[in-house]
Structure of Helix-turn-helix domain-containing protein:
Amino acid sequence: MVTANPSTSVALDGNPYNQGCPTRRILDRIGDRWTVLVVGALGDDTARFSELKRRVEGISQKMLTQTLREMERDGLVIRTVFAQVPVKVEYRLTDAGISLRAPLKALEDWSIEHLGAVLTAQQFYDQE
Amino acid sequence: MVTANPSTSVALDGNPYNQGCPTRRILDRIGDRWTVLVVGALGDDTARFSELKRRVEGISQKMLTQTLREMERDGLVIRTVFAQVPVKVEYRLTDAGISLRAPLKALEDWSIEHLGAVLTAQQFYDQE
DNA sequence: CAGTATCCTTGTGGATACTG
DNA sequence: CAGTATCCACAAGGATACTG
C-alpha cells in the first residue's frame, strides 16, 4: 500500500497515489482475489493443476489458468510440463513467490484478529 | 490470505479456501484497490472528503464515497460532520484502521523490493 | 489431464446532473 | 462542500463445449 505522507514514499516515480505508480500496479496484480488464494494453496510444495483447482474452492478452470499464467509471467510460479499421456503439469512457487507469503500472512493474521470487531461494527452500523 | 496447509489455519469455520470463510470475506473487502489507497492516504491525520479525493489520484467521487462508507461500516474509519454551511466532513482512521497500516506496509515493501524482478520476468516471458 | 475457445451474464465503476 | 441518483460502458468472470 502506501504511507501516510507522500513524501515518505518516493519510490520509483514520485507520488505513490499516482495512477501510473509501479507499486500500485503490482498491488493490483498480487492483490487480486485469486492470486492471494493460489499462493496460499501452493505453499511450499508442488501441486498439479487439478489439485490446485480442488484446493481453491470456487475458482473456475478459466480463472485458475489465467491466474497461474500471470503468476508465471510475474516470476512467482514455475510451471513444469511432463510429456506423458495424459499430460501432467506441476506448479510451485519461486523464491519470489515464497517471499510473498510473509506479507500475505500478515494480512491474514490481521483479518483473523479483527474479524470479530469488524462484524460487530457492521451489525451496529446496519441497525440504524 | 491463507497458509500452505489447510490444517494450520482452522480459524472460525474450517477450511480457509472455503468460499464462505470469513477471512476470505474480509480480505475481499480490505483487499480492494481503493480501500488500500485510502488507508494510506489517511495515515494518522484527519482529512476532509475533498482532500482525500485530491490525494488518491484517479478515484471518482462515487468510489471515494462508497469506499469510505464501507470502511466506516467496518469500523475502520470515523466520519465527523460539522454542521456548518457549507458542510465540512472529516475522516480519520480508527485504531483498527491504523492497525491495518502495518500489514499493508509489508505488502508495499514487498512490491517495492520485487518490482524490478517482476518487470524483468515479464519482459523475459513476453519475448517468447 | 490440462488446458483453449466462445459466448453471455454480471458487477464494477465512470460520467453526469442534481441537492441539503 | 459533500454528497445522492441515474444511466451507461466495459471488463471480469462463469458455463459450456471442444482438443493435444
User: Anything to note?
Assistant: The CA atoms of residues 29 and 70 of chain A lie 8 Å apart.
